[in-house]
Amino acid sequence: GWQIDNEFGGDGEKGLCYCQECAKNFRQWLQDKYKTLQKLNQEWGTVFWSQTYTEWEQIPLPRQLGTAHNPSLLLDYRRFISDSYISYQKLQIDILRKICPHKFITHNFMGLFNGIDYYKLAQPLDFIAWDNYPNLRFIGENKSPIKVSLSHDIMRGLKEKNFWIMEQQSGPTGWQCVDPNPYPGEIRLWTYQAIAHGAEGILYFRWRTSRFGTEQFWHGILDQCGTATRRYEEVKKIGQELKRIKDKLTGLEFPKEVAMLASYDEQWAFEIQPNNPKFNYQEHFTSYYQILNTLNIPVDVVSIQADILKYKLLIAPALFLINDELVANLKEFVKKGGTLIITFRSGIKNWNNIVFDEPLPAIRNCS
Known about the structure:
By secondary structure, the chain is an alpha/beta fold. It has a domain at 258-365: Class I glutamine amidotransferase (GATase) domain (Rossmann fold, 3-Layer(aba) Sandwich). It has helices at 20-34, 37-44, 71-99, 118-122, 145-158, 186-196, 230-249, 264-272, 281-294, 324-335; strands at 2-3, 105-106, 108-109, 129-132, 135-136, 141-142, 163-169, 199-205, 258-261, 300-302, 313-316, 339-342. The strands form four sheets. Strands 3-4-7-8 form a four-stranded parallel beta sheet, with helices on one face. β11 (313-316), α10 and β12 form a beta-alpha-beta unit. The chain is globular and about 70 Å long. The termini are far apart. The model has no long low-confidence stretch (mean pLDDT 93).
């Protein structure tokens, strides 16, 4: 099979770009979406601050300003960047489907990364994989077990099927600075945690640590010298254990009773206007997930387009943006006996990032 590219958007700043090519393509993307400037001006509310556009070329990329950009422009820009990666992936997939149609195609996602709408990116892939580094202290990221668990469940929910780990941390990581060695048993712990959440394939990164390039100190199972290490013995033990129990681990299924509704559009809208500088959508989402995880309740993390009628309980944290389709699905879910939990700051804006002119529109009738 094939892995398309590597960690889309992982080049810093969530993959955002402000070059002239992106400016041209962004304006074309807007033309395809809105058709006319009159429609765009109406949907964005550009009359405020005298931002009405009379030519497509007047629309800027949202570089940093002394003040703030229109929230609707900012949200559409995030959607455009996401769609750009999705189009680039499609270019590669189309080539491979034509040349070798019987080979699987996947991509290595990045867990909680939110620069791309992962639900859309996952659609044309046969299955998804992701890179699991629970401990990246050299960049100030030391993930709690809950965050790793949530990442696994998000990845499983992208296509509502089991997944692979394309890069599983197997040693100290780092470029300029280097993290400590994983504690004895940590690699084994991370491996079984992944399997428990639906991982059907796990590849450790890497087999032998490189002697050259940026990742000279991004350690693998073996150090540069190639001799057996404690990490090697641990991975060897894992292999022996999995060989004995592999038949019990194939095709694991999870109870379809509880789900959490996730949306990259919601995350982007809150990043644009968090309302409170301490509010973080992912942290708010995680706080509800953590309760379920602590109670050992399996949970699917699904998109707003998913079939939610198969669940008994649906938690939808902070649905800042809503549209008619989403509201209709939530009403149908409740009508058929489902229990719906919606949290604060829900139903505030429409899908173009414009505030409604009525209190709790539509969603107030969901319960």
